[in-house]
Structure formats: C-alpha cells, structure tokens
C-alpha cells in the first residue's frame, strides 16, 4: 500500500510501504477514507524537532473497517469509524477516568512501528476501546459531513477539551489564544457545546478571524503580547477573563494567557509544547489561577460528538480549507507550513 | 508602644515605635492579645530575601478592638476579633469572588507604612471587611482556645485552602508536601473540614510527623525526591494521589508534588515561592494535571472556622509549641529558624 513518510525536514513523500494487517486479536484493519495533516506534524517538517527518516506520518483519520481480530466485539467489517489520534483500551484506570490519552495500553498512530493515518490503511490496536462507529455507514453519510467527522479525530475534540479544561460553562466569557485549527475549534466548542456567551479570539489573520467569527467568536483581538493583554482587559471592565484556552504552547502564548486571566481564573492548556517552556509560578500565585493541562482524550468525547456532527448541529469541518489526494501530501505540508492552509485533508 | 522590628538578617528587636492609631474612618485600632511568627518571616531573618532595616514584623494576630473610625459598623470597642493576615474591603470584585487576598483596597500587615502584628497594637484598615468577631468576647473565651483562634489568622486557613485548591472532598486520598505549620494544618483541614479518608504526610521530623498523625494523617513518608515519589506510589497501587497539597514552594517540593500526582490529579499550591521557581510544563501536560495556586484568602474562611474552634470541633492550635512574651520575640525567631519550634506565639 502507499503512505506518506517523513524523509527529512521539508521532505515528505508518498511511497510504497508494507500493507497494514492484523497482528493481534484486538486489532482492526481500517481502510482510510480521509486523513489530514496536523500542526504537530509540522514540527519535524520545519526542522524544529527530530524525526527518524522514513518514519510514517499522520494520526488523524476516518475509514471503513476491513477486518477485525478474533477478540474484537464492537466493530465489524464494513463499519464506518472515526479513530482518535491515539488508541486506548478504554478499561484501564486512566481510561475509566476519561483520560484515554494516558491509557496503559495506548499509543499514537504514526509512532515508530505503527501505521500512520496518512496512508491507505491502518492497523488499529485495541479496536474496541478506540474506534467509534458512525451510525448508518459510509454509503448513507452525506459527503459534506466527512470533514466534520475527520475533524473529530483530533482538532475538534482538542479544541473542545481546551474549553472544558478552562472551565467554560453556560454564559461564560472566554478568551482563546491561538487561531490554528485547535483554537478555532475551541471557539466552536465553547459556543456550541458549552454555551459560552462571549468568546474573544486572539487572531491577526483575516481568514482565520473570519472563520472564528462564523464559529461564534464575539470579539477578535489582533494585538499580541502586552497590547493584546491590555485589549482583552479593556473588553472585560479591566478585570480579564475567567476562562482562557491556551492553544499554542509557546512561552509567548503562555505569557499572554496568564496575563489576560482574571484573578481566580482558569487556563485550559492544550497547546502542546514542542520546546520546553518553563512557567514562572509567581503570576499564577499572585493571580490565584488554575492551570489545567492535557493532551485531549479524544476517545472520551467521540460518543457525544459523532451524533452532533451527523445531525448537523455541530460542524467543525470548515477548518479544512484544502483537500488533496493522498499522493499530493507533500503539497499539503507545504501549504500548511506556509500558512496558506489552516488545515489540509487528504482524500483516499 | 512596643513592637518587633527587623534590623538585619538574624537580628530582630522589640523597640519603642509610634502608637498605633486610627487615621481613616474605616480603621479599627486593635490591642493585640496574641500574635505569632510565620515561616515567611524567616525568609528575611535567614537572609534569603531583603527587608528594610527597621521595618515592622508580623501579620498574624488576635486582639480586642479599642476604637473604631466613624464609618465602621460591624465591630465595636470591646469586641474580641481575629484578623486575617491581609486586610480587605470584602466588597470589590475579587473579594466577592472569595479572593480577599487580591482585594483592590487590600494590603498585608507589616508591610511598609503599616503596623505589624508582632506589637502591642495594630491599626486595621478596612475594619468591616477584615475583622471577624469571636462571639462572647475575650473574657468568656476559654484560654485554651486562644492558640486555635490565633492559628486562624493565617496557617490554619492557609492549610485548609491548600486542601480546597487540591480538590479534596469526602473520601479523598491526599498527599501533603511540607510538614511546617501550613502542611500540618492542611492535614487537619483535609480530615476535619473536608472529610478526606486517607492523608499521606511527607515528613522526616518525628515531632512534626507525630502532630500530623494526631491531626489525622494516615501515613507518613520520610523519603524525599524520587524515593518519596516511589513510596507514595507504592501506597496508592502505583497510581499516585489525586490530590496533592504543595505547602513548601521550592523547586524540590514542586518536583515531588508533580511526581506523586495521579494522572488527572490536582495540586493545590499554597507554598509561597520566595525564590523564582520555574515549572516545566511537560509533566503537567503528560500527566493531565490541574495546578491551582493562591495565597489563602483567610477572610473567606474565617466566618466558618471561628465557630468550629469555639465549639471545640476543630483545633489547629497545637502547631504552637512555644509561647513567649512579645519582649522575647528574638528568641522565637531563633527557635523557629533552628527548627526547635514549629510555630511560636507571642503573648501580650
């Protein structure tokens, strides 16, 4: 089969790789319908972190089950499924706490020795604890819903998780730091799922700001740093916001997030740090902040989110502004790296 | 009047200072009955931080109101009162959120230009929003209850706040890092007020461990660092604890606190950092932790805690293992600095 592999910084190629196959009785073999490129895939592409030459890429995909191992009971061949970006048994202590991204039998697609999502098929370990079936199957699913379902595999659930960690509830005022797909989908999750009343999106890209507004952002702040903090305070009677979603993960975005939080406020952090940011604890102390961290347990959210996408009440798919055939994955990486695309989907 | 002043590292003297007096219509003048020495007072005493020569000391006291300004309505001369270590108006947005330690008209006793608690009398700004009256007055209060009431002015409420921040509720398992007065009173607060079931106290001093056990600690761990973390994990099926109270504030104690927290756990941080610790955010991310910070809003807790001390159901006073006359304050500093005393009270 064919799959995207990382060759070196800036070089992604779609090449022939060994066919995905079942190797454990808990596995499922899934034929990929759509996959996509993640902001985190760009870290190696841009040379920020190391990645082994020849390693497989991609951890977000939806597809159709082709075969299952002998112990799999909840999915069967022909099922249309959403895969979270990590697999999980859904039965260990962390999973039972709703933190499937710390499953003791879990792992991430695309890690060494596993199939990546950006390929024709994927071996899915712990299939029962990982895959969530889309009712009705692929044939009866409106193709316009595919981007929304694909977004559930990571960014939509991650954005929502950020808003959940930030403590957003009905009527909340929330600020979202980061206008990538995760930040934009934090806006959508805060508004559509958690019923926030006011959402301030930090964005200085017109296209992203416009999408953010369409997702329900009530205010957009283009300024950064101290100026951005001052603008948010101006918008909130000088007090700052009770809920901040940190969806970037850099020292600069952290400084903004901490600076705009109201005394007693909460920062929900889903911007995975790819460097090693250190956080001074004086500001959190002085401001009585709550900081909540975590890589989104997508599997925890899927049973709720899949029906919302299917009934049209929640549409995270608009973050995909470019869709390419798998064979053209390299163009997708370049488009995202050059910020010509918010998020690129790969079809077929 | 006489009051303790800081002269230089290691040198505290009780000297003649200007009489405390009312200078604002919202003030009360309080004659000090008991005050005490705080762990944070030792930072300058030990030369860790700078403090102005001649500056007043102490922020914890109980006393009797001697006079009030024209706008004061809730306390009157003769009332026996507990003072939180910071004054507050109790009406600003932060106060209304229960965070009186960020009151917009607040301040700390003993700061430049204010009276310290370690003296004969104190001018209390914002008296209505600050002082809490002990029902019945000083004459009818059992002298055995005075240490407990004095503890409420800081350490008892601070320990409880740590447990509250850590999310402790009925049946919780909690670890307390720090066996100073605050850590010990976090044990008591977790057990007596919040109904924790299991409390692991990190302590390697026999006297403190014994007091911790008397306060309800079910386990004492003397090891530190990686060994301490391993011991706590051994005690919790390898999973770590859901609730950690960080009552020290050093890089070492933070590392232990983060290391012993269960995936998805919460660290309540009341150990005020006197250096500038930086926190790596990888561990909180990886472990899906919630970190909650803040200098305890003692005033928020006092209306609940004063009656508990008065009816004998809650006795935080045992942390005072040494009581000296005010004139011997210097001996108290030395005893605490040399760890011969957990906490020293100054009488009269």
From TrEMBL, chains A, B:
Residue ranges annotated for the Alcohol dehydrogenase-like N-terminal domain, each copy included: 25-128
PROSITE patterns from the UniProt entry: ADH_ZINC
Record keywords: Metal-binding, Oxidoreductase, Zinc
Superkingdom of source: Bacteria
Co-factor requirement: Zn(2+)
KW Hydrolase (keyword) present: no
Family: Belongs to the zinc-containing alcohol dehydrogenase family.
PANTHER family, alphabetized: DEHYDROGENASE, ZINC-CONTAINING, PUTATIVE (AFU_ORTHOLOGUE AFUA_2G02810)-RELATED, ZINC-TYPE ALCOHOL DEHYDROGENASE-LIKE
Protein's UniProt name: Zinc-dependent alcohol dehydrogenase family protein
